[in-house]
Specification:
By secondary structure, this protein is an alpha/beta fold. The protein has 15 helices and 31 strands.
């Protein structure tokens, strides 16, 4: 587990299909004719035709769901006092077979056998959501357990383990199985404590491993958190599974859905959330479900532009793949949950009649472009700094804005939960929008101070948080604190809103004031400490931006990224290029030479291998805006623009189409 994670470390599986393979593209699948009823209304001809259409669209991976009550249709027969006497299939005794003893239906297992064969014939790989007891707003449990908490009740868990072990044992030798998923959003099935969530996850993961060590275990959860007190934590899922998962739908994620698809911040939601999970957990992350939730939220053209941006962005930011929700529209289905939920009916890549939406062409175009790059491996992107998330703040709000600001400023960050592990090595540490009275343990704070003394740079912005040794750290003296009623400050010609609950009335002391409020009160400042430097912002800028619609793309949006640009410019970076347009994000990937140490891992891209020079990087420039932009990309000293691999070569100005990417190389100059 990278970065020195704690506790139980899940062994890395030998079949690392999702971890070190090419970036995977695909979708979640229910049969086009029946949705969640596909197993009881089994029609192999329809499934075969569905698979033909999805394979023709260039998809590689399907996430699929053996619906729990269909595959383990147990009924509890009770005697005196309501005690369970026997479990049966309705009135039929369980067969005296391996499947029967596990409560599994031979008929459904036979359907799944046929299902896998059809996928294998079309080179479609399956991620199997084993315990699918939650789907599209409806809970699906076997009748015997419908009144129980399936995550805590011992009897339910006994049969869950039997299900998992028997199912995995039966299908583990099939080449069409890419990975085992715990189940679809199992954290929605019932309420639990953190310890109960950990125990359930460990039990099911261990049941899978007891039968199959050759494949990754995929979390399948959504809406995880890093904060203490939450039941389903990123760190716990990372401890127990091999691949973390995000399901980044704006309406169901805090602080999302503020801006229209496909504008800057909306385009970065999936990448920011996936990197948060992967960085905090120290495990690979798969964007396992993504979509625009139908025509109420976006028309087809904008949905396609959104998907195009997500593909390039997730690929460039070290994520494992993208699976759309879902394969086919379900607006013709009358049973629940489609009868209940309007939002579940028009989410497909293809319509119910099989005709493709514009989304489909984006998958094929992306795969063709990536395969044609001729690059043997994509190392992880160069990282400029570590963003430390602290207790008692709204961590997702802060992380989301921080990721957006970094992209605008032309740098890349990774996330770390400050309370969990020793600080990672970094030239720049960011502590945005610190809140509360317990924001960092003293032992971690001392580590951070030692890093600054040794030459690192710290950026600290403050909400209602308490910082010990404030004056020695910032060079500022706090005279008093009062409730803030608004205001702003100027950094050069840039106006930065002064938000947050409190205003600090400050005396500059030894700090250099870089921006002041209207009455001269210091707002943004810097001071040396040992060999390092500390930047301080007297406002929780990142948290405030997360609450403000249009804060990253409207014409009048404040250029708050200039604050971060100033910090990184003073700290210095190893970037080979810089850009002059905030809506364009850059990632840099060291391809050869000593420069290669800047990356942490490699992922094959496909295509024919091509040679690289002594010091060479691949640059991915993504336009996160729905409008074509002209950007000037300037090489840093010691670098020159190499060749264009996708799109035109920067000269140094270049036009990048709306919601699209160009890719080129830069080479070191001797």
């Amino acid at each position: 587990m990278p970065h020195g994670g704690i506790g139980y470390h899940a062994p890395m599986a030998a079949n690392d299909f999702l971890v070190s393979g090419r970036f995977k593209t695909g979708c979640n699948y229910w049969a086009s004719h029946a949705g969640t009823n596909m197993w009881r209304d089994w029609d192999p001809k329809v499934v075969a035709k569905d698979f033909d259409r999805l394979a023709l669209a260039g998809l590689e991976v399907l996430r699929v769901f053996p619906l729990w009550p269909d595959f383990q249709p147990l009924t509890a027969l009770r005697g005196g006092g309501g005690a369970v006497v026997e479990y049966r299939f309705g009135e039929t005794p369980l067969p005296d077979t391996e499947a029967g003893r596990a409560g599994l239906s031979e008929e459904m297992l036979s359907h799944f056998d046929e299902f896998i064969l059809m996928a294998e014939e079309r080179d479609l790989q399956l991620v199997v959501g084993l315990l699918t007891g939650w789907m599209s707003g409806r809970r699906y449990l076997p009748p015997a357990f419908d009144h129980l908490n399936p995550l805590t009740d011992a009897t339910a868990i006994v049969w869950e383990v039997r299900f998992v072990k028997a199912f995995v044992r039966r299908f583990k030798d099939r080449k069409g199985i890419a990975a085992w998923d715990l189940g679809n959003e199992c954290n929605c099935m019932a309420g639990v404590s953190r310890d109960q969530a950990w125990a359930w996850t460990a039990t099911i993961a261990d049941a899978i491993r007891s039968e199959d060590h050759s494949r990754q275990i995929v979390s399948g959860m959504h809406s995880l958190a890093a904060e203490p007190g939450e039941s389903w934590r990123i760190q716990d899922q990372a401890e127990l599974t091999d691949v973390l998962t995000t399901h980044p739908y704006p309406p169901f994620t805090a602080h999302c859905g503020l801006d229209p698809i496909p504008t800057f911040r909306a385009n970065l939601h999936a990448t920011a959330e996936s990197r948060l999970y992967g960085d905090v957990g120290g495990k690979p992350c798969l964007c396992e479900e993504i979509g625009v939730l139908g025509p109420t939220f976006s028309d087809d053209a904008n949905a396609a532009a959104y998907l195009r941006t997500q593909l390039w962005s997730l690929w460039a930011h070290d994520c494992m793949g993208l699976l759309w929700w879902c394969g086919f529209d379900q607006d013709h289905l009358a049973h629940a949950p489609y009868d209940w939920c309007a939002v579940e009916r028009e989410l497909g890549l293809l319509r119910a009649d099989g005709t493709p939406k514009p989304l489909v062409a984006e998958f094929a175009a992306f795969r063709k472009a990536v395969t044609g790059l001729g690059v043997p491996a994509l190392p992880t992107r160069l990282i400029d700094g570590v963003c430390l998330l602290t207790p008692q703040q709204d961590q997702w709000a802060v992380a989301y804005s921080a990721f957006c600001l970094a992209k605008q400023a032309g740098v890349d960050i990774e996330f770390q939960y400050a309370d969990a592990e020793p600080l990672r090595e970094a030239p720049v540490y960011l502590m945005p929008s610190v809140a509360g009275l317990q924001n960092m343990p003293r032992r971690r704070w001392q580590e951070l101070l030692a890093r600054i003394e040794a030459g690192a740079t710290l950026y600290l912005s403050l909400g209602d948080g308490v910082v010990s040794g404030f004056e020695a750290l910032t060079g500022l003296r706090i005279l008093s604190r009062e409730r803030r009623t608004g205001g702003s400050a100027k950094l050069g010609n840039v106006v930065i809103p002064a938000g947050g609950p409190y205003r600090l009335n400050l005396a500059p002391g030894r700090a250099e004031v870089l921006a002041s409020e209207e009455d001269g009160n210091p707002f943004f400042s810097t001071a040396t400490r040992g060999k390092g430097r500390v930047f301080f912002l007297s406002s929780p800028m990142e948290h405030d931006l997360a609450l403000r619609p249009g804060a990253f793309h409207h014409d009048g949006a404040p250029a708050c990224w200039r604050v971060w640009e100033r910090v990184f410019a003073a700290a210095g970076t190893k970037r080979a290029v810089r850009k002059d347009v905030p809506c364009v994000g850059l990632t840099e990937h060291a391809l050869s030479g000593a420069d290669r140490s800047l990356g942490r891992a490699e992922r094959p891209l496909g295509g024919t291998e091509r040679p690289f020079g002594k010091a060479e990087r691949l640059i991915v420039a993504i336009n996160y805006s729905p409008e074509s932009v002209r950007v000037t990309i300037t090489p840093a000293d010691g670098w020159k623009i190499g060749e264009a691999l996708r799109g035109p070569k920067p000269a140094p100005a270049v036009d990048i189409p709306a919601n699209d990417a160009i890719i080129f190389t830069v080479a070191g100059v001797d």
